[in-house]
Design brief:
heterodimer, A: alpha/beta, nine-stranded mixed sheet, 9 strands, globular, B: 91 residues, two-stranded antiparallel sheet, 3 helices, 42% helix
């Protein structure tokens, strides 16, 4: 192989824990959740942050599960800043008290991304599966504003709550957020189980795109809007993580290092752990990170496609889940032979009258 | 951008020297903007106290360049940062 040496990663997502008070039916965590006694300890995370900074990571996203469920969160934030990383907390807000937020401020936390399950208690608490969660979140948002943390609101949208998008935009302004992520649910992990209940209709997806375009003009310079459209209704796939092994990496609560958060759904890949190898070795040398780097692994129609270095054939996990082959073109792509089946399935799911939600839960692994 | 406007980096946006890539970077919420020499020179003058007019005059003197040209380039660069909420303007 004479492939050029990959660039160092820019961002690292540290899934500190899979524990979470919420049980959203679209959770991006794997179906088999890590238990608390499997989680990396404080010292190991601190070492990993240091290794990440030395590897070239600039942005650290502390996520989960709910990262506030880790009792050592403040200590971890302080260590991440000490290592020189820009530190972002991705949270539902549950588990953050005013005192803890002040401690995070003193530890140097740079930014908070607060998730939004709905724009009122009725919706948010049903989707999150946690009564009182919305009221708690609104209180946390107020404390965040009082301390002055830069804030991004992350509105996760699907068939049930897409009509709340205009209100979510207003709420971002009211909270003083500089940025909102309008993220239509992507169907991986738990969401794959809930396609019948969550798949938006084509009209909803179109309305959302129009609302975002209009709001971007109206709120220019005031609120930045990042938009993740409804994947199944698009004609071209998304570039996974900016390209497999090109800009980001993900650490599971147990310490496995993944090119994206869903990569463990590809069964033939083996993932190294920070318990046994350095991040540097894993990033540059491991088989999993090299598996889908660049374009050499591609088959047709990707090989001869002019978009192959734009979207890199889309999402490998989705190719496996929907086309049965992780090397195939992402079926979202109009050039995929599976595209028409995917679109038909999306219409069927969207028209489904089955609104039953399968909430995420810790399932004991069979002994 | 007016000469009297005072640009400032808001909380959560900061200059960082990236030792691995040997380049200056502007770190912001969930973004890292790689800076070229000009970008770094302009942002190095942004201190939340001096006005855009004072900054461009200082840059023109430092780099021995026409102030109109510096002002035009800097306004484009800072305006783009402002649209992304990486820069505040006070007057």
């Amino acid at each position: 192989m004479t492939a050029p040496r990959p660039q160092p990663p820019i961002a690292m997502l540290a899934e500190l824990t899979h524990r979470c008070p919420l049980s959203c039916p679209y959770c991006s965590n794997p179906l088999e959740l890590a238990r608390q006694d499997q989680e990396l300890d404080t010292d190991t995370w601190v070492r990993v942050f240091d290794e990440a900074a030395k590897l070239g990571v600039l942005q650290l996203h502390l996520s989960g599960g709910e990262p506030a469920s880790r009792r050592d969160l403040v200590e971890l934030v302080a260590a991440a800043r000490q290592a020189g990383l820009y530190t972002n907390l991705i949270t539902s807000g549950i588990g953050l008290t005013q005192k803890r937020l002040q401690a995070l401020d003193e530890a140097g936390l740079d930014h908070i991304q607060l998730s939004l399950q709905g724009t009122n208690a009725e919706m948010a608490d049903e989707i999150g599966g946690y009564r009182g969660g919305f009221a708690r979140k609104m209180q946390v948002a107020q404390w965040i504003g009082e301390i002055g943390f830069p804030l991004t609101l992350n509105a996760v949208l699907h068939r049930r709550n897409l009509h709340q998008l205009p209100r979510a935009l207003e709420m971002a302004l009211e909270m003083g957020a500089r940025r909102i992520e309008v993220a239509t649910v992507q169907f991986h992990g738990w969401a794959l189980k809930n396609r019948a209940a969550l798949m938006p209709s084509r009209e909803q997806a179109r309305d959302a795109t129009r609302t975002v375009a209009e709001a971007r003009l109206r709120l220019k310079g005031q609120l930045v809007i990042d938009y993740v459209p409804a994947d199944y209704h698009e004609d071209y796939p998304k570039r996974c993580m900016g390209g497999w092994g090109t800009s980001g990496l993900n650490i599971t609560p147990e310490g496995r290092v993944l090119p994206c958060h869903a990569a463990e759904s590809i069964p033939h890949l083996e993932f190294e752990t920070v318990r046994r190898a350095s991040l540097d070795d894993i990033w540059y040398e491991s088989a999993a990170f090299n598996a889908y780097r660049g374009t050499d692994w591609m088959a047709e129609p990707c090989v001869s496609c002019e978009r192959k270095t734009i979207d890199f054939g889309g999402c490998r996990c989705q190719a496996l889940a929907l086309a049965g082959d992780a090397n195939a073109t992402d079926p979202v792509c109009i050039k995929s032979p599976h595209h028409k089946f995917l679109q038909a399935a999306a219409e069927d799911f969207a028209a489904s009258t089955d609104d039953t939600l399968t909430y995420r839960q810790l399932v004991k692994a069979p002994v | 951008m007016e000469a009297a406007d005072i640009p400032a980096l808001p909380r959560g946006v900061r200059l960082h020297y990236d030792k691995i890539r040997q380049a200056w970077v502007l770190l912001a919420p969930e973004r890292a903007v790689m800076l070229d020499q000009i970008g770094h020179a302009v942002l190095s003058e942004v201190d939340g106290a001096r006005s855009f007019g004072q900054i461009t005059a200082a840059l023109a003197k430092k780099y021995n360049a026409p102030v109109e040209q510096i002002a035009e380039d800097s306004a484009g660069f800072l305006g783009a940062l402002r649209n992304r909420r990486f820069l505040d303007l006070r007057s």
